[in-house]
């Protein structure tokens, strides 16, 4: 997404199964299918729940007719534990639902195209504690089948949901280790100072 921002200078590589995603021959449509993004604030399209989920499969050619799309929509909504709540309201505008439901809908929308990696940018920061718990439970379930990268400033959330933690400070990776080690025996003083609340 940052390749369209004027003045952006990219150094280094981001590899996805050995492919540099910033390489000149990268098919951006395919990359966006392989890597899904969940934003801080839910961003459902201003259309029905059904059409939100069906959008990706239509665009990438996985399905076109309503009959082909129905099982994809149901599977995706079941994956985010939203099917039972919305199955009778699939034709309603997605913007009419709560923020927590909208965020799960956005996750279902990206799952519909079967990505390999899910990027989450503060996915629960705009949600209440109950909706946050649902998102965290969903992350725990999804990580069985997907690689998930989460950015969060909530250290308790990082400790609860992650297997590995990277601590960044002013754009630099200070430390990367298994989460339990990071929160109990960090190697860098900067990491320890942040975790213990001495700074940050």
Structural class: alpha/beta
- SSE ordering: EEHEHHHHEHEHEEHH
Number of strands: 7
What do the pLDDT scores average to?
A: 92
- Across the major sheet, the strand order is 3-4-5
**CATH fold node name of one domain:** Rossmann fold
Q: Any idea what the CATH superfamily of one domain is called?
A: P-loop containing nucleotide triphosphate hydrolases
What percentage of amino acids are in beta strands? 15-25%
CATH architectural grouping of one domain: 3-Layer(aba) Sandwich
Helix content: 40-55%
User: Which overall shape is indicated by the principal axes computed on the Cα atoms?
Assistant: globular
Largest sheet: 3 strands, parallel
Sequence stretches where pLDDT stays below 50 over 5 or more residues = none
Radius of gyration: 18 Å
Q: At the first level of CATH, what is the class of one domain?
A: Alpha Beta
How many helices in DSSP terms?
Answer: 9
Distance between the termini: 28 Å
């Amino acid at each position: 997404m940052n390749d369209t921002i004027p003045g952006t200078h990219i150094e280094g590589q981001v590899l996805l199964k050995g492919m540099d995603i910033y390489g000149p021959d990268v098919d951006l449509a395919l990359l966006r299918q392989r890597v899904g993004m969940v934003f801080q604030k839910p961003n459902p399209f201003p259309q029905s729940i059904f059409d939100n989920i069906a959008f990706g499969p239509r665009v990438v050619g996985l399905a076109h007719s309503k009959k082909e799309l129905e099982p994809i929509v149901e599977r995706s909504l079941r994956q985010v534990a939203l099917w039972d709540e919305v199955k009778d309201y699939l034709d309603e505008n997605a913007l009419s639902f709560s923020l927590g439901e909208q965020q799960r809908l956005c996750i279902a929308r990206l799952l519909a195209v079967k990505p390999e990696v899910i990027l989450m940018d503060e996915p629960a920061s705009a949600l209440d504690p109950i909706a946050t718990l649902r998102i965290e439970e969903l992350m725990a379930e999804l990580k069985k089948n997907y690689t998930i990268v989460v950015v969060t400033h909530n250290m308790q959330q990082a400790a609860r949901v992650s297997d590995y933690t990277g601590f960044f400070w002013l754009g630099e990776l200070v430390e990367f280790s298994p989460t339990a080690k990071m929160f109990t025996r960090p190697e860098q003083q900067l990491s320890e100072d942040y975790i213990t609340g001495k700074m940050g």
